[in-house]
Amino acid sequence: MSSDVRFTDFKSDKQPTWCPGCGDFGTMNGMMKALAETGNDPDNTFVVAGIGCSGKIGTYMHSYALHGVHGRALPVGTGVKMARPDIEVMVAGGDGDGYSIGAGHFVHAVRRNVDMSYVVMDNRIYGLTKGQASPTSRSDFETSTTPEGPKQPPVNPLALALASGATFIAQSFASDALRHQEIVQQAIEHDGFGFVNVFSPCVTFNDVDTYDYFRDNLVDLQEDEDHDPNDYKAAEKVILDSEKEYQGVMYQDDESVPYHELHGVTENMSDIPEDAPEDAMDLVREFY
Amino acid sequence: MAEDLNWAIGGEAGDGIDSTGKIFAQALSRAGRHVYTSKDFASRIRGGYTAYKIRTSVDDVQSVVDRLDILVALTQRTIDENLDELHEGSAIIYDGERSWEAEIPDEMTAVDVPLKSLAEDAGGAIMRNIVALGAACAITGFDVEYLDEALEKRFGGKGSKIVENNKEAARLGQEHVEENYDLDHLGYNLETTDNDYVLLNGNEAIGMGAIAAGCRFYAGYPITPATSIMEYLTGRLEDYGGHVVQAEDELSAINMSLGAARAGARSMTATSGAGIDLMTETFGLVATSETPLVICDVQRSGPSTGMPTKQEQGDLNLTLYGGHGEVPRFVVAPTSITECFWKTIEAFNLAEKYQTPVFLVSDLAMSVTEQTFPPEEFDMDAVEIDRGKLVDQDEVDEWLDEQGRFRAHAVTDDGVSPRAIPGTIDGAHMSTGLEHDELGRRTEDQGERVQQVDKRYRKVETAQEREEWDYREFGDPDAENLVVSWGSNEGALVEALGYLEDEGVDVRVISVPYIFPRPDLSEEIEAAADVIVVECNATGQFADLLEHDTLTRVKRINKYTGVRFKADELAEEITEQLAAEVPA
Ligand SMILES: Cc1ncc(C[n+]2csc(CCOP(=O)(O)OP(=O)(O)O)c2C)c(N)n1
Ligand code: SF4
C-alpha cells in the first residue's frame, strides 16, 4: 500500500476548527507530507496527540491515533512504540502540553531515545484556554494571568533536550512549508527520538511572536555552511544563543542507538502464542 | 491438629533478616511442611526493627497467630517487641558474646550461641544468621539437610565455596546447641512429608499470573508494597517476549501501559495508594477510549504517605469511585495468594473482553507473605485466554461505515465494540478522552453522548449476566452467623473457624473476590441472624456497600493498626460481636 500513499490519505474528514491563519494548519500539512514521503501509510502509523489547540491535530489526521490527557502524550507514544516496533509513531502537542505539565515526561522521553518523532507546536501561549502565559512566553509578555509578564525567563526547550541527552534536535517554522516538511522528515528518519520544535503562530492571542516576527528574524542553519549538526559544541552554540531564532537541524547524533536496539525490544507484542500459558510452566518450577 | 511451630528472626533492617527467614521457609517447604510467613518492617533501610515470622505445620496454615515458639533475637528490641507472643516454653536464640546483655524472662529457654564467632570459623561473620538457623534445627530436631537444599538454591549461583561455607555455618550452629544444651527438642518433632510444595508470595503470584495471561508490557514506578511485582517481572517478562519499563512517575507508567495496550499488547501497571491517585486522570481516558488495561493496586496504610510498610484495605472506595465523571470499571480483589494468580489472569480477560480498565486490588499482607501450595494450584494448562472482539483483517469490513471508516466505538447490544490494532488495514481510527461518536470523533451531540455513556455502562450489564461474580465459602453453610470479608483476611478467617468450632460457635464465612460488579448477597444476609463484615480499614468500606446493596445493617470488625488480622484474635472478636447489639 505504501508506494501509492498520498499525503491526503493522512487527512481525516473532520474540518479543523482552528482560527483561520493559525500556524497549526501549516504544521499539520508538513507532518502529513513527511509521513507519506517517508513511506508510511495510515494503517501502520500511530499519532499520539496532547491537549490544546495543537493537540486537536490527532482529530484532523487519519491514522491509528490517541488523543490523550494533558501533558502525557509522550509516555503513550513510548508505550505504543515499545509494544510495536513495526509501527511508525509520531507524537504531537503544544508548548504548554510539552514543556509545562509534561516537562517531566519530555526530559525522560528524550533520554530514553525511543525511535519516534515528537513535534511541538510552539506558539508561546496557551491557545485553547484562551491566552495565558506558556513556559515559552517571553518574560515581559502580558497575558490575562500575567498582566505584567511572567517575569521569569522562558524555558529553552532545545537546551532542555540537549541537556537531557537528545540525539536529534531541530526547529522549524510552520509557514516555511518546504523546510518544515524536510525537517520533520529528518526527525522521522532519525534512528531514535526525533524532536522538532515548530514555531506555529497563534494569530488570536499572541501579537508578539507573529508570522512577521519569525519571517524577519529566522536564521536558517542550512545557509550557515559552518554549522555541522554532528558537532555537539556547534549545536550548543546555536541552541544557547538567545539573540537569534534559528530553524534547521541543530543537533544529530548519527551514532545514537535507539531504545529498542539497546534493550532488545524488537518483537511485535500484540500476539499471544497459542501455547503461551503452558510454556510458562518454568515459572512455577522456580518456586520449588 | 498437628503441632505447629511459630518461629521468628528479628533484628535491625540491614541484618539480612528477610533472606534468612526466606531460607528457613524454603527449607521447611522442601521438607513438605506448610509455611505461612509474615513480616514486620519499618519504612527505613538501615536501622529500625524488622522481623520475619514463620508459622509451619503439616496441616495447611493460612494465617499468623499470637504465639512465638522460637525466636532468633539479634537485638534486645526483638525480644521486647515480641514479649506478648512469647510463652513459657519459648526458646530464644541469641549471641551472648555480643555487646548487648540479653534480658530474657526466666521462664523461657535462653539458648546462647556465639553466632558471630562460629560464622567466622565457617568463613565469615556474614553467615551468623545461618548459624542461628542451624541452632534452630537442633532445638526442634529438624533435619539440617533440608536447610542445605535451601542454601544450595539460595547461593548456588555464587559458587560451591559459598554454599559449602554456609552449610558449615549451619552445622556449627547445630553442633553448638547439641553439645551444650539438653533440650530434648523442646518437645518438637517437626514431621516431614513427601509433598512437593512451591513457596511464593502474592506479588509473585500476580507477576506469574500476568505472564501466564500473555501480558507483554509492564510499566511501573517503585512504591512499597507494589514494587516487587515489577522486580519479579523484570527479566522474566523479557523471556516471554515482553518488556518492563521503570517509568519516571505513575502518570507516565499508566500512560505507557495505555499506549502499549492500544498497540495491541496485553499490558499492566501496578502501584499503591498514592500512585493510584496520580493515575486517576488517565484512568478515565482508559475507560472512555475503551482500552483494555489491568491496573493493580497493592494497598498500604494511607492517607497520604500514611504508613507505607503497614497493612490496610483502605483504597476500596478509591478504586470503586476514583476519577471524575462516571466511569465503568471492574474491581477484582483476590482473596488468597493462589487467587492472586487466577484473578490476574481473569483481569486480563475481562479487560480485553469488555475493553475496560480493570482494577486488581491486593494488599500489603498478601504481597509480602510467602506461603506454600501444591504446584497444581498454579496449573498453567487450565489457563484460558480470551481476547474478546479483537478483529482480524478479514473481519474489519463488517465494521466499516458507508464511507469505509472503522467504527471503533460502534454502539452494540452488548456494549462491546470491535477492536482493531495498528497494522490492521482499514482499521485506522482515533480514540480520545473527549466524548466521541462511533468513529471516535469528538461530539457534543446530546443523542450521541447518551448513546456512548449507555454503551459503556452496558458492558458492565453484559458482564454481570455473562460472567460469574461468585464468592468463596467456608465453614458451616447453614450457620446463623455470617461473616463476610474481602481480600487477604480470608486465610485468618478460615483458621478462626477452627477456634470458633472449639468453642461451639458455628459460622458461615463468605469471602468476596469481586467488588464491582459483585455477587448479590441479599439472600445470604437475609438468612443470617448475625452478619459481621471483617476488613482492614477504619470505616468499613465494604460493609457500607453491603448495607447499600441489601438495606440491612451489619456488624463490623475493623482493624487499622497497620497489622493484619490474626486467626485467634479474629475468633475472639467474632465471639464478642455475636454477643453485641446490631447497630441502630
Ligand atoms: C489536567 C489538565 N489541566 C488543565 C487543562 C486545561 N488545558 C487545556 S489545553 C491547555 C493549555 C494548552 O496550551 P498549549 O499546550 O500551549 O497548546 P495550544 O492550545 O497553545 O496549542 C490547558 C491548560 C486540562 N485539559 N487538563
Ligand atoms: S487560538 Fe491560537 S493556537 Fe488556537 S487555533 Fe486559534 S490561532 Fe491557533
Question: How would you describe the overall organization of this protein?
Answer:
The complex is a heterodimer of chains A (288) and B (584). With 288 residues, chain A is α/β, with parallel strands linked by helices. In chain A, 33% of the residues lie in helices and 16% in strands. Chain A is built from 12 helices and 8 strands. The mean pLDDT of chain A is 96. With 584 residues, chain B is an alpha/beta fold. Helix content of chain B is 38%, strand content 20%. Chain B has helices at 17-30, 76-82, 115-122, 128-140, 144-155, 160-180, 202-212, 227-239, 250-262, 273-288, 316-321, 337-354, 364-368, 446-466, 489-502, 522-527, 541-550, 567-579; strands at 5-12, 34-41, 49-57, 68-73, 86-94, 109-112, 198-201, 215-220, 243-246, 266-271, 293-299, 330-332, 357-363, 370-373, 430-432, 472-475, 481-486, 507-512, 514-516, 530-535, 555-558. Chain B has a 7-stranded mixed β-sheet, sandwiched between helices. In chain B, strands 2-3-1-4-5-6 form a 6-stranded mixed β-sheet, sandwiched between helices. In chain B, strands 16-18-17-20-21 form a 5-stranded mixed β-sheet, with helices on both faces. In chain B, β8, α8 and β9 (243-246) form a beta-alpha-beta unit. In chain B, α3 packs across α6 (160-180), α4 crosses α6 (160-180) and α15 (489-502) crosses α18 (567-579). At the A-B interface, β1, β2, α3, α5 and α11 of A face β7, α7, β8, α9 and α10 of B. Thiamine diphosphate (TPP) is lined by residues 51-54, 70, 93-97, 121, 123, 125-129, 134 of chain A.
